[in-house]
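Is it possible to get an amino acid sequence alongside its tokenized fold?
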Amino acid sequence: MYSDKIAYYRKKNLLTQEALAEKLNVSRQTITKWESGLISPSLEYLIDLSDIFGTTIDSLVKDNDCISDKYEILDTDELSHFIVEAKQNTYANKNNKILPLRSGSHDYLYKNNQYTYCDSFFGSSQFSGQEIVYQSDEVCWSMNYYGKVTDDHFSGDFLKQALSHIHVDQPFRGPELYTKGDYIYICHVTGDLFHFNGEEKIYYQSKPIYECLFHGGIIK
């Protein structure tokens, strides 16, 4: 069915529903309805879809076996939700810490169905680490980060609280803005799940006390 084809080619091209909707200037709900078979895209949209996917209109509307391996395609929507779930259930909430995998490392591990998340870092006031996501034992996503504390007013608990408010639309560190008392957390990201760079900072009474740089993306 065309609905399966649209979902197949979207995932094959590593596009989220939001990203495809933006390219077509439609809502994400429209993509969802196409992929569920509730409504059909018009000929105009089929032409646009074939251009975006680099395929023919026939391949989108005619039955064939091109989607036989669709379950092996990375589902970026599902991946984003898993990353958020994993981060909220590890360092941010002091859960699922495991024994050090390397000398001096701090390690967290979280699994759910086909996905496994591992966060491993070194240091405290100056730290460096890496987060890896595996899909069925194959690495599919990674993020590297380096940060440092620049003032004694730094609160690790406040940082964890900010990180626990991560959202699926930006599944990297914390939200764009989080405040509590005299503390302010700010996170700025360019890019998306496939390739991104970002920086987060914490201020205490308007004074910068912490900063962290991070980058990463899809691995294939």
Observations:
- Residues 76-88 form the longest helix (13 residues).
